[in-house]
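Folding Task

Wanted — backbone structure
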Amino acid sequence: MIKTVLKMCLSGSFRKRRNTVEKRRNTVATLGLVMLLQLTLWLSWMPAAQALTDEQQLYNEAWRIVSRAYVDESFNEQNWWLVRQKMLRKSFPNREATYQAIQDSLARLDDPFTRLLRPEQYRNLQVTTSGELTGVGLQISKNAETNILQVIAPIDGSPAESAGVFPKDLILEINGVSTVEMNLDDAAARMRGAAGSPVTLTIQRDDSESPLDIVVTRQHISLNPVVAELRQESGVPPVGYLRLSQFNANAVEEFGRELRSLERQGAKGYILDLRNNPGGLLQAGVAISRMWIDDGPIVYTVDRRGILDNFWADGSAVTEAPLVVLVNGGTASASEILAGALQDSERGELVGQQTFGKGLIQSLFELSDGSGLAVTVAKYETPDHHDINKLGIEPDVTVELDSLRRDQLATSDDGQYQTALQRLSTLMAAEPKSSEPVAWGNLSGGNLSGGNPSAGVPAMANAS
């Protein structure tokens, strides 16, 4: 009897154990089948690398650059990998279709500064930063909220400035075509053209009830970024006046040469005019900052991982003389880097109006067919870690001013300049009577210690 019960118990225990093993086997088999189905579905979405056409490969090249470099790791809350997979399931019959696919993908980022540059546009942008162009001479941006084209600033001495286009003007139409659906490069291309040909810009200005039609005659524009003069103002020691119109490839060498010349001529203080300076090359902004600031940080850059990089002064400042900086709503990008560094380091006082507020850094990447991508790769912060994007920089002394003609700048008609001169006079009076000369150091701008924020060339706002 005992043997029988024991046999039954053992038999029941064995059956339970066998059933458990079988259930586990079935579960494993089911999971394996599910994983196989998922893998099959994933592979069905995944285009075979060897099957990509030349057009698809170009799309993939552009997608990969954005995937690795774009400042927002969430890609504006988009599944960037899925964007690629859906696009690569399409066939691109020609290059224009490929470009459209790239543009459609970039549009999902909702970032007007990250954009495709067709080969001609890419060459034009490189020419702009190198120091010359043919067109109307406007630096433009897209208002992120309204999607309307906005003037950052006209280039100093350009046809647009002569025709009366002002910073913060909204460009509603170009030759009768609405700008709402245009990207920056499309708008710039429409404003470029043969020297001597006209283009009509329909402008909306804050103080005007109805739009204005302004006809601008396109011209060849030589971008000479620096104006310098030693001024003998009544009752004030010699003043060095420097107007910097943009940070292109010529700016660092020209600015350094003029600043050294003013030092040799005996300037005791300086007024640096950054009004309507729309920016340009990051490295140029850093190099010119180093001519004024002898020690400490100049700018911090923050990438997609939140990692800080920085550019520091390197002991090569040209002068310690008092400095006042003129700024306004057309002071943007690299010129805000310079203004912010001078303000936060207490190296110079800012006089004028709130700056534009462009605190993003773009890099240019060339694609294999000669086109390119401008990609937002980082944002920057001033030495005191102020993020000025869409906020701008508040000057130390605010002076409102109506727009002036070019020949009125830095004259008795220029209230901001007159205030800057008064502030500089006070600063110079407070200076010790004797001081040791400052070594000039290296002004070439070639050695930018502190790191490169990204591969590629940081791009200025588009010039037309």
About this structure: Confidence is low (pLDDT under 50) at residues 1-11, 33-49, 434-464. The chain has four domains: 1-40, 49-110, 132-222, 226-458.
